[in-house]
Amino acid sequence: MKWPLVKLSAVAPSKPLKNPNINNTKSVWQLNLDKVESHSGQVSKKVYDSIELAGSSTHWFDERHVLYSKLRPYLNKVVLPDEQGLATTELVPLCPDESRLDRKYLAYYLRSEHFVSWISDQVAGAKMPRVSMKVFWEHEIPLPPVEEQKRIAKILDKADLIRCKRQQTIKLADDFLRSIFLDMFGADLQRNENVIKFGDVSILDAKMVDPREEEYLDLLHIGPDRIEKNTGKLLRALTAREEGLISKKFLFDEQYILYSKIRPYLRKVALPDFRALCSADMYPIKPVQEKVTREFIWMLLLSDFFDNYVSTLPARANIPKLNKTELAEFEFSLPDFSKIAQFTEIVKRYFAHSIAISDSQVESKYLFNSLSQRAFAGDL
User: Which of 99, 209, 274, 369 is the most exposed place for a label (fewest CB within 10 A)?
Assistant: First the structure.
């Protein structure tokens, strides 16, 4: 059955909360994009602070809204808030007409593969891609009766639960690897013997190339937004040709680690297994052989030990960055290479095992996307 199509502007206009009920001006939920997980819309951490610290680029919302991120739409950040709060203006406060549109149905639609792919195509090539709200409001959403919308949302809830459980399995595996690193090196790194600097065991330079040259046009381009925080997993990226790049970029391959110098507290560190380009906001790091390995450096930069070092550095205005000198000056006690090699083998076995877990995750994602596509086409 084909459902009627209705413009988003007609059923879910942007309506920030005008008269918030504020019990405590010193403790208000303040939501920024870095606290929202991609695809799931889960809030990783609720931050409560004084209204005075919120700034002017915010608006109020409550549990009736659906918050849609207009920045980098391919990150797919759609939030169903469960209480009143203040959000960055990058999150559009959609207020669905309850008589015509179910809030959860709307959220699932905005997160659907079909919609994310369509809206991402509208902004491809921009340096800081933002959704044109004019285009967004003109988009037509399939609109079955509200009871049917709720039925569809319940079906997708069940499929999403399976997907989330498999994602949780992956997270547990990631946590296990961190635990192994801590057990093997937690004490070693802080000893007062064989202390070295990060720059002694790594090369912090890579070749810069012009992405407009034919040789590089079809290589992927990795920026900080293409690396998942805390885990280092690489997300979907576009090629140099698709992004229309014009400035020089670093060229890297599977010998390197990628480290994002922007907002280092996000811990965006990746182990690529391909040749590609990266932005100047990244440091391609090549370990010195027979001293350290890629796997060791990767987990070291994801560790609390390195994060503690970063936290001691001078605070900077605007966007926090870690400069190359600060990275090179990071000191630690170099463990015996035999232990580093042992850990490297554990990581390699972990990655081999994670392929099976990832295959299961891909299968559950495919099931969810298939159900979603059928649901919004009126085939459920």
Answer: 99
b (16+ CB within 10 A) / e for 36-55: bbbbbbebeeeeeeebeebe
How many structural domains is the chain composed of?
3
User: Residue 46 half-sphere exposure, CB side, CA atoms within 13 Å?
Assistant: 11
- Distance of alpha carbon 66 from alpha carbon 94, whole angstroms: 5
Q: How crowded is the C-beta side of 65, counted as CA atoms within 13 Å?
A: 25
Q: At 361, is the pLDDT very low, low, confident or very high (cuts 50, 70, 90)?
A: low
Say if strands 221-222 and 276-278 run parallel, antiparallel, or are unpaired: parallel
Helices (H) and strands (E) in the chain, counts: 10, 19
252, 272 contact by CB (below 8 A): yes
Average pLDDT, the chain: 88
Bridge partners of residue 141, in order along the sequence: 6
Element (H, E) at 287: strand 282-287
| Total count of residues recorded for the chain | 380
Closest CA to 148 of 12, 4, 364: 4
Give SS3 for 328: helix
84: left (phi over 0), alpha (psi -120 to 50) or beta: beta
pLDDT of residue 56: 83
Do 267 and 185 belong together in one domain?
no
pLDDT digits (tens, 9 = 90+) for 258-303: 999 988 888 999 999 999 999 989 999 999 988 999 999 999 999 9
If we measure between CA atoms, which residue out of 369, 320, 306, 361 comes closest to residue 34?
Answer: 320
Which of 361, 96, 307 has the alpha carbon at shortest distance from 369?
Answer: 361
116 shares a domain with 16: yes
361 and 303 housed in the same domain? no
Residue 76 amino acid letter = N
Q: How far apart are CA 322 and CA 22, in angstroms?
A: 38
Helix pair 337-377, 113-123: axis angle to 10 deg: 100
- Taking the C-alpha atoms of residue 88 and residue 54, their distance in angstroms, rounded to an integer, is 9
Q: Do 328 and 220 belong to one domain?
A: yes
Closest by alpha carbon to 88, among 76, 74, 71, 73? 71
